[in-house]
Every structure is written in C-alpha cells, then in structure tokens.
From TrEMBL:
Residues 1-20 form the signal peptide. Pfam families: Oxidored_molyb. Keywords: Signal. InterPro entries: OxRdtase_Mopterin-bd_dom, OxRdtase_Mopterin-bd_sf. This is Molybdopterin-dependent oxidoreductase. It comes from the Bacteria. Gene3D superfamilies: Oxidoreductase, molybdopterin-binding domain (3.90.420.10). Residues 95-150 form the Oxidoreductase molybdopterin-binding domain. The lineage of its organism: Bacteria, Pseudomonadati, Pseudomonadota, Betaproteobacteria, Burkholderiales.
Amino acid sequence: MDKRHFLGAALAAGSLPALAGPPPKAPIGPALLTISGEIRRSNRGALDPVRDQMMFKQKLSFPRAFALDFAMVAALPARTIRPTLEYDGKPHALRGPLLADVLALAGAQPPDAAKVVLRAVDGYAAAIPMAQVRMWKMIVATHLDGQPMALGGLGPLWAVYDADRVPEMAARPVKERFGACPWALYHIEVQA
Ligand SMILES: Nc1nc2c(c(=O)[nH]1)N[C@H]1C(S)=C(S)[C@@H](COP(=O)(O)O)O[C@H]1N2
Ligand SMILES: [Mo]
C-alpha cells in the first residue's frame, strides 16, 4: 500500500490521531442535519438528485457529507442559553450543543476566517464567519424551554446564540438580533 492509499484508508476508518474515535456511524433516525464542504469525516455519499429532492431543488451539491439524526445532535454535550426572543420579547431557555462541536463531529475545524452557510428548510440561509460562531458561542438548539421544537415551528434544530450576552447585539432592537439564526436548520456548508 503506498502512502496515499494508506492515508485514504486511515481517513475512511477515522483512525488518524486528529480524528480518533470509532468510525462515523450513519444515522438511525431520519437525518435532520447534513454537513458538507470542508469536512474530514463523512457517513454518506454524494447528493442524490432523486432521494435528496429538497437539497437538489435548493441547488446544493456535494460529493459526500456527514448526516446527523436528532439523537446524534442531542448526544453531544449541551449548554443552555437564555436570550430574549423577538417573537414575544421574553427570555427563553434554549439548549443544545455548540455549533463548533457539531462541526467537529464531521471532522471540520474551520479557521476563523472560513464561513459556514446555515440553511433552513424554507430556503433562508445565513453565511457566518467561524470567528463569529466561536465568539457568539452559537449552539444548535434541540430544546426550547425544555421541550423539543416542531418542524413547522422553530425546530427541530435552530442555530442560535445568546444575543443578550453579546454586547454589540444586545445594544440593537430585539428584532435585529437574529438574522444569523436560521430556525428549521437542516444543512450546513463548511466553506474553505
Ligand atoms: N428558517 C428561517 N429562519 C430565520 C428567518 C427565516 O425567514 N427563516 N429569518 C431570520 C431573520 S432575518 C430574523 S431577523 C429572524 C426573525 O425573522 P422573522 O421575523 O422573519 O421570523 O429570524 C431569522 N431566522
Ligand atoms: Mo432580519
């Protein structure tokens, strides 16, 4: 086996030191979040224009991706934030893993200058620099006030942050704080 083949095999098995741990598992439940782009681990192949209708219609394309079901997101260490939401002007508890940790599961540790495109099922998308993802400690929320969030509501996954605790955002009117926060998040593209 030459060096390149060895590296390929090691990557496929997830056995490089930086990617230590068991090889990536495919989701058991329906995939709720698909991560593509600059990732080093994958558990599914290329976008399939037949089976991946919505992603196809939204003009996504990838040679491979990392897909997560709800359990995979919920299994990551979670934190709780309490931002004031614009929909009722009241603070709410939002719980979920750090977005950066979700990306790390796909073997993505993008530099601060790289952008991630957070895409929602209604086509809303926000391109956010990783520096901001880290500074704002953005999470992928799985629960609102202790309950899972409906598809058709704000869920099942919502990329969100604690706007009240980020001074430059807390200074803005509440309606201008969440442009970077797609609810019904279902796809993340990690750009170079
Ligand atoms: N899925 C989804 N998330 C979204 C939006 C949207 O249209 N769809 N709008 C964004 C914007 S621009 C803001 S200011 C807040 C609130 O948007 P809304 O007032 O349209 O709900 O949610 C953000 N997240
Ligand atoms: Mo907005």
